[in-house]
Amino acid sequence: MKLEGKVFEAGLGGPSQGDEHIGSRLRQIRKLAGLTQAELAARLNIGQGALSRVESRKDILVSTLRDYLAALGATLRIDAQLGDAAALVTSMREAAFQFDPVDENQLLLPIIGDAIYPPRRDVVFSIKPEYCDAIIDGRKTVELRRRFPATAPVGTTVFIYATSPTRALVGMAEIGQVHCRTPQEIWDSFSDRACIARKDFDRYFDGVESGVAIELRRGRRLRRSLDLSELRERFSFEPPQSYLYATPKMREALHYECSEVSH
User: Fold this and answer.
1) For residue 188, what pLDDT band results from cuts at 50, 70 and 90?
2) At what angle do helices 37-44 and 62-71 cross, to 10 degrees?
3) Mind listing the pLDDT tens digit for each residue in 90-102?
4) Considering the domain boundaries, does residue 186 fall inside one?
5) 50: domain CATH number?
6) Which of 39, 131, 182, 188 has its CA 20 to 30 A from that of 256?
């Protein structure tokens, strides 16, 4: 079944029956598209085990749902029903989640408008090991993202997670200015500081009208690295495809155990 160009609309459903949860329905869609888990995982640039866990979940982040469908060539659309009128969500961005100021464990989803960076939150970036070393050594001072809140405060702590084969939290840095620009403008202004080849840059930003250049400063190595097994056991951590906000528990532990001591 060809899904290229299809639009999937998220709506309210009744109680799930048996294993008929969102993950199992995604698995059915993948099979309709004629893709194996390994093939779709390769498109998403994640491991097959991570994709298997997605397809076993009863609840899935909107960003994960969007990326899953996009890898199948489809588009996610969400309608919000307000009274008798339906308001179409015009922008569904990866960073659109905010934290409830009353309950910091509660996520809010602003359905209209740009993302707002939640206050007092550290962020975890997933980065290839060779780029991690460049940030820690001070050679790479700009990190690129297809999406990231422009409202991230200067001085926000970034914890650096090195992807396979390292699979560990290895360093930290601070966010400077965040620039939202067209890919060409980003290349012209920041290519020398981003440490990326033009062909890789073009591949990364293919199909988007704007991207984000995040200035980084004070890159340094953690006093000890935390591998993925420890991160999972202690913080229920799963590596993000791009980035995630550190939970309060994780943030406190990392600052206490791994960061440099202030003088």
Assistant:
1) very high
2) 110
3) 444 433 334 433 3
4) yes
5) 1.10.260.40
6) 131
Q: Among 66-75, 86-95, 124-133, 237-246, whose mean pLDDT is lowest? A: 86-95
Q: Which of 140, 142, 148 is nearest to 208 (CA)?
A: 148
What are 208's two structure tokens?
């988007």
Q: Are residues 144 and 58 in the same domain?
A: no
Is residue 36 domain-shared with residue 129, that is, in the same domain?
A: no
Q: Considering the chain, what is the average pLDDT of its residues?
A: 78
- Give yes or no for a contact between 80 and 111, defined as CB atoms under 8 angstroms apart: yes
pLDDT tens digit string along 102-136?
334 433 344 334 455 556 678 999 999 999 999 99
What is the Cα 185 distance to its own chain's centre? 23
CATH, residue 166:
2.30.130.30
- Count of structural domains, the chain: 2
DSSP β-bridge partners for residue 217:
174
Backbone angles phi, psi at 245, to 5 degrees: -90, 135
Residues 138, 230, single domain; the answer is yes
43 pLDDT higher than 60? yes
Residues 163-181: tens digit of each pLDDT: 999 999 999 999 999 999 9
Are 63 and 150 part of one and the same domain?
A: no
Question: Which amino acid would we find at residue 110?
Answer: P
CB 135 within 8 A of CB 127: yes
Domain that holds residue 167: 123-257
Give the domain-ending residue among 21, 47, 80: 80
- pTM comes to 0.57
**Three-class secondary structure assignment of 115-129:** CCCCCCCCEEEEECH
172: nearest Cα among 125, 104, 235 = 125
